[in-house]
Amino acid sequence: MTFPDPDLLHPIQGTTRVVQLRPLIAAQEAVANVAAGRFTYYDDPEHATAFLDRNILYNFGFSGARLEIGSFCAIATGARFVMPDAMHAMEGVSTFPFAILGGAFAEALDLGAYPFPQARDTVVGHDVWIGMEALVMPGLRIGHGAVVAAHAVVTQDVPDYAVVAGNPARVVRRRFTEDEAARLVALAWWDWPLERIAAAIPALVRGGVPALEDVAARR
Predict the structure, then answer these.
(1) Model confidence over 101-151: pLDDT tens digits?
(2) A GO molecular function for this record (predicted)?
(3) Residues with catalytic function
(4) pLDDT score of 218
(5) Boundaries of domain holding 196
(6) Rounded-to-integer distance, Cα 50 and Cα 110, Å
(7) β-sheet with 80-82: strand ranges across
(8) What's the pLDDT score for residue 61?
(9) Each residue's pLDDT tens digit, 55-95
């Protein structure tokens, strides 16, 4: 039995518009604060291989925050992630970052002394679908199995297996009940060996939680 290669940059024969993020990130040693799990891909007919530059915004490294994307995620054209380095200090009268211009402005107050908001990692769970032109703001968690609609602006955490849409994004429906979602998270099928995942595909695509639990029980 032959399985797809999670470290092949262009996994679909005959097209370069789809890139797997894990090998793309591995090829760029300068990007140390971004990680993606196996088989997670980005689809873009023009700029697929420029994902790290065009779709991860303000990743200057000042904050030390990370972007962690799970396995088996599908990211559509133009979806973007804003890193915490984009944030301005808002505790004082002005939000202007004088220090970045250097000279006397930087001497007056070093950028490291600005009261920036506390930076948190942005974490995207496993099996997440992010639609076209969606925007994910810094420091959020998007739960496992979630769906982010096209053009949504995500400003708060997204629960497991929730569908969010709009600006700001709001939960419009739950894909499963709270109990079912918890059972799916416990199964963690995305961590299974490829042989088991292949055997589970009918249950994953056409079945429900009990069907996947049956597959899990047949170890």
Answers:
(1) 999 999 999 998 999 988 999 999 999 999 999 999 999 999 999 999 999
(2) acyltransferase activity
(3) 88
(4) 86
(5) 177-218
(6) 32
(7) 56-57, 80-82, 135-136, 153-154
(8) 86
(9) 999 999 888 999 999 999 999 999 999 999 999 999 999 99
- The predicted-structure confidence for 168-186, as pLDDT tens digits, reads as follows 999 999 999 999 999 999 9
Please list, residue by residue across 85-124, b when 16 or more beta carbons sit within 10 angstroms of its beta carbon and e when fewer do.
Answer: bebebeeeeeeeeebeeeeeeeeeeeeeeeebeebebbbb
Q: Is the dihedral of CA 87, 89, 91, 95 positive or negative?
A: negative
Q: Is residue 31 domain-resident?
A: yes
**Rounded CA gap, 192 and 217, in Å?**
13
Q: Are 103 and 79 in contact (CB under 8 A)?
A: no
- Say which amino acid occupies 168: P
Q: Which residue bears the tokens 């569908």?
A: 163
Task: Work out the average pLDDT over 3-31.
Answer: 95
**Taking the chain, what is the end-to-end CA distance rounded to the nearest angstrom?**
18
CA proximity to 89, closest of 111, 117, 53: 117
Asked if 131 and 147 sit in the same domain, the reply is yes
State yes or no: cis peptide before 168, omega within 30 of 0.
yes
Count of domains observed in the chain: 2
Q: Are residues 164 and 61 in the same domain?
A: yes
Assess whether 188 and 85 both reside in one domain. no
Which pTM does this prediction carry?
0.94
- Answer whether residue 13 is part of any domain: no
The answer to whether residues 55 and 153 belong to one domain is: yes
